[in-house]
Amino acid sequence: MLSTMQDVPLLISRILTHGSTVHGSSRVTTWTGEAEPHRRTFAEVGARSAQLAHALRDGLGVNTDDRVATLMWNNAEHVEAYFAIPSMGAVLHTLNLRLPAEQLAWIVQHAADRVIIVNGSLVPLLAPLLSQLPTVEHIVVSGPGDRGPLAGAGAQVHEYEELIAGRPTAYDWPELDERRAAAMCYTSGTTGEPKGVVYSHRSIYLHSMQVNMTQSMGLTDQDTSLVVVPQFHVNAWGLPHATFMTGVNLLMPDRFLQPAPLAEMIESERPSHAAAVPTIWQGLLGELTARPRNVSSLTQVTIGGAACPPSLMAAFDKLGMRVCHAWGMTETSPLGTVSRPPAHAVGTDEEFAYRLTQGRFPASVEGRLTGPGGERLPWDGESAGELEVRGPWIAGAYYNGPDAEPLRPADKFSEDGWLKTGDVGTISPDGFLTLTDRAKDVIKSGGEWISSVELENALMSHPDVAEAAVVAVPDDKWGERPLATVVLRQGATADFETLRTFLAEEGRIAKWQLPERWTVIESVPKTSVGKFDKKVLRRQYADGQLEVTRL
Ligand code: ADP
């Protein structure tokens, strides 16, 4: 028997219409680095999104399914592109501005982008690539920056403001099939070649509802969210869409992502929430320690993208900034698990440990663990295996061109369609995920596994250590052993012996897991989305570029 309910498609245009009317007075504030930030209401963003859609369709001839890329910082115009492009039936393709040039060019060609909207300050990055981008017909430039380098480009160049000016401020958004492509994003390639994930209207809509749930980010129109996570990093973790559902104000840092301007915007704009990867927060913590500011408004910080070191969570707690740890990936839109402790643990000694886990599965995301032999492992909090997930906002394949069959590589998708995450961990009986490592980063020592993340967290809890990354290196006797690469704080006195002893104390790390190989580095190399880049460290070690001490 069929239901008697209406079948209304879940569309991004619906989120835009709702946000720009019901929450029309909420604001997108963009940091400008000048005396006053730039402010625009959701109603204005709605009107300008309609103008942008008209400009793309009538001005540039963008059709249904055409890919329109953005090479932009987090700002109001990028939010307009987020809504206009999918709502009109085209596909938003967010480009990662920190990728190496050749990878960026490869991605634009793979997606066959027809238009690129670029921030003026990023023109120097785009211009030299254009000769390799035959599919790109139009470049639309927004915001300050020299347009000079675009002279002589094969593509037509337009000014964003001129292009949208005078166009109608309403658009008759098409009633699309909710399963159609809305946006695409390539994985940042931390562990391999970039792979394209194509989100649907339905997946983004449902994911936005999850982001808004009390046990996820749980924000309301009384909140302001500082979105540091880039809009090219998995849709800024869904925040632009989710906030238009609930009227949460957005504070966008544009290109001002260094610790000092971040501290300044927190002090002057007083956001209540912020989201970014751990390395951003480590930087902010250093800044706040050196130059204390009034950050009392910021009471909730979402940390994800890489494991949150316990020392960071504890330091933020002291500043009144409560960390909520979350796990996800490009393929999961990205929200997978969120670490809200269960009621029985709140206020007890267990609470901190729960908060440090990657979090609990929401109703719409199913998780299971698979052992090395393909066997299903129990949720007992002890059996460690590869995490597999499925749900309505989890990728079921990778993009392989508009007319080609999507790719379903056997190392990424199980035969019954679950996503193999490449993350290794345990799940407790009450559904909390604890990741011990990425399958590719785990150190396989004499048939046992050593978690690189555990070693890093323990090292970073030493007061003399600013950052630490641990990678597997070949070892004649054990197969692999850990190499500890350490960034010391200014004026630090600890030597390797001291750090090794510290790791062994208070049962932090089992004796057989202690690293013998140590090196001091200036900073840990980072990926395009600010995670530790262990590929680079492994290569530097293999090339003999690191000065290693053996204890
Ligand atoms: P990339 O794979 O290129 O780094 P993603 O942003 O998609 O790009 O990364 C997803 C991966 O990041 C996950 O598979 C996991 O390894 C890691 N990750 C994300 N959140 C966390 C977290 N809270 N703790 C540990 N690892 C995390």
Automatic annotation (TrEMBL):
One of its GO terms (molecular function) is ligase activity, forming carbon-sulfur bonds. Residues 454-531 form the AMP-binding enzyme C-terminal domain. CDD domains: ttLC_FACS_AlkK_like. Keywords: Ligase. Residues 36-399 form the AMP-dependent synthetase/ligase domain. It comes from the Bacteria. InterPro entries: AMP-bd_C (IPR025110), AMP-bd_C_sf (IPR045851), AMP-binding_CS (IPR020845), AMP-dep_synth/lig_dom (IPR000873), ANL_N_sf (IPR042099), ATP-dep_AMP-bd_enzyme (IPR050237). Belongs to the ATP-dependent AMP-binding enzyme family. This is Long-chain fatty acid--CoA ligase.
